[in-house]
Amino acid sequence: MVDYLTNWKAQIRRGYLELCILMLIQKYERIYGFDLLEKLKEIDLEMKEGTLYPLLNRMTTDKVLKAVWETENVKGHPRKFYSLTKEGIKLLHEMKNEYIRMNDIFEKIAK
Amino acid sequence: MVDYLTNWKAQIRRGYLELCILMLIQKYERIYGFDLLEKLKEIDLEMKEGTLYPLLNRMTTDKVLKAVWETENVKGHPRKFYSLTKEGIKLLHEMKNEYIRMNDIFEKIAK
DNA sequence: GTAATATACCTAGCGGTGCTATGTATATTG
DNA sequence: CAATATACATAGCACCGCTAGGTATATTAC
Known about the structure:
homodimer, 111 residues, alpha+beta, Arc Repressor Mutant, subunit A, three-stranded antiparallel beta sheet, 5 helices, 3 strands, DNA-binding
């Protein structure tokens, strides 16, 4: 068993990571997983491969994202590019609203 | 299976609820579960009994909270009052720091 | 007097996700 | 040709929010 704080940090990331990923994909319009991992590291939001790839696959299955393999003009391993579906854009909008609502409550309690 | 957004809302509440509960207990110094449920409702952060009570018990077991039964001067069912332990105060401090760090990242992506 | 309501706490079990650990494949560099 | 960098994938564990029930005491309604 890991310590209390470490476990809590894993819990609070639930849902939050998904929100951040969707916002980043919207920002870049289209991006592949490995690149996303680097962008996440740059903004101090490190994420494990074993967390990101299953998340991206799940969101694709659920039609929140659409995925396109890119093999041409690419040296090395082929890349899978993700972008938001129309449904994903709508979902992200509602998720952001809920996040902001929750943060407002946090700040109301904190002050 | 519930819809995507409903499930996501349950996920993003993980850890966040624990943080809010600890902040509220600190604010009121000592409070019992049922009262906490009402205070949560007042600030539009409704929580189910089946979520709150196991959470309070877990945090008590983990020495984050201390619990005291109060039977005197109380009509009806006895009440269990909770307050933060020294360890709980320290933990809450670190949890708030992490939450704020995460919210900063959210805002950096959002703008 | 007893049925209904309000107050107050509790628990078994389900479902979903972040992480660990490991695996696969291609191209470049030493 | 071994090592490294790039790139994606998955099985399984641990944990927590919620559902759906339950117990117990005191007051109010009829």
